[in-house]
Amino acid sequence: MTSNLTSGEQAAAAAVERSAATSQLRFATAGSVDDGKSTLVGRLLHDSKSVLADQLEAVEHASRSRGQEAPDLALLTDGLRAEREQGITIDVAYRYFATPKRRFILADTPGHVQYTRNMVTGASTAELAVVLVDARNGVVEQTRRHAAVAALLRVPHVVLAVNKMDLVDYAEPVFAAIAEEFTTYAASLGVPAWGSGGNPQENWCTAIPISALAGDNVVTASANMDWYGGPTVLEHLETVPVGTDPSQDPARFPVQYVIRPQTAEHPDYRGYAGQIASGVLRVGDAVTVLPSGRTSTITGIDALGAMVDVAWAPQSVTLTLADDLDISRGDLLAPSDHAPKTTRDVEATVCHLHDRPLRVGDRVLLKHTTRTVKAIIKDIPSRLTLADLSHHPAPGELAANDIGRVVLRTSEPLALDAYDASRRTGSFLLIDPADGTTLTAGMAGDSFAAPAEGAEAARDDEGWDF
Questions:
Q1: Which of 6, 196, 205, 229 has its CA 20 to 30 A from that of 309?
Q2: CA of residue 138 relative to chain centroid, distance
Q3: Are 346 and 414 in contact (CB under 8 A)?
Q4: Which helix or strand (DSSP H or E) is residue 63 part of?
Q5: Are 269 and 24 in contact (CB under 8 A)?
Q6: How does pLDDT run across 86-137, given as a tens digit for each residue?
Q7: What's the whole-model pTM score?
Q8: Which residue pairs, CB below 8 angstroms and at least 24 apart, start in 2-10?
Q9: Which run of H or E residues covers position 16?
Q10: Which of 101, 91, 104, 98 is nearest to 130 (CA)?
Q11: Alpha-carbon Rg of the chain, whole angstroms?
């Protein structure tokens, strides 16, 4: 840890960070149709001994019924009936497995263009994305689209898995050309330029030649590619650094619940429970409550029933303050000297998830951390074309899977960070106020999708006039 913590705090925080880094990694797979995502996931599960006997038996039975001699490992993740019938992935399939070095939460996302929103869902919380490329086809439009989404969502690490190397005779020049093309495109996205919390990443992308069907370089090193001296996919997943130094980020504490027992034992107790979104909190810290702007001092930190002097993200704790303030669910506690500015005018990059288009003038609910407020879509300045990163100015609406810029006006102030500074407190959801359906995922700030110049200003709207 850094010198911002005392020696005792450094040891405790380092232990937590080390435990997190060696115990769990969230990652997502992406790629074009038939590039072998589900087969790769199945191979990871099978070769890492993470498949139960009855699961493997069911896959073998299903494979035989389809006339296949060997078990189709893709069936381990393609669980929907439509997926198995069509041989494609439709929904995001989450799988959990573990090795002696690390536990994994895996999101297998679809490859079709119309399911780009599912890739956004799977990658939004991922610390690593595996982008597959068919060695015979090279980098295609959907490869560029998924790389752009990973960059847009600030996924800290990307693995370029060049699959089906067995079908190109394990040729090194084929792999090298694909890796070079992908790296050049990644540079056009502005990476490597960030990590979690905005920290630079030296090696955003790692290229690995594999054959998911044959098992080359997935879990065990390939004897067919002795020219490759890097890690297998599993070795990289087990060793890639995850987690960040919490003392490098300003503290953010969204209040989830106010605890007021009002019992004879605790007649005046008032605690504020939630999960620390980022940074470090200490007893004695001066904090500001947003959006009200009132200030107080932390007098106690309760971590799972034990009183501690310091806590850091992502711990769940209960805070007590020196003053009895009007604080409720949705308020945000932040250090008084590093508090974010509150605003009712939000500019963001969004990915529209719903089949119903998002239009200028729409009334929505905006959910940011634990706070939900009313909002109006005031403008949609541009829509991003992921294939070439061009901007379509003033589209008027965003359809399902579209990524674009929006300008919103909220009914109440929000304490938003820029998404490139914090994936947790810089993100939000737009919700249909009529039925609670999630419409859009938003990332506050410019990202790499800068607003188009000359976009027309939106008209004032009636109804929710804030």
A1: 196
A2: 26
A3: yes
A4: helix 53-65
A5: no
A6: 444 445 678 888 899 999 998 887 766 666 777 888 888 899 999 999 999 9
A7: 0.80
A8: 2/245, 2/247, 2/248, 4/247, 4/280, 5/247, 5/280, 5/310, 9/310
A9: helix 7-23
A10: 104
A11: 24
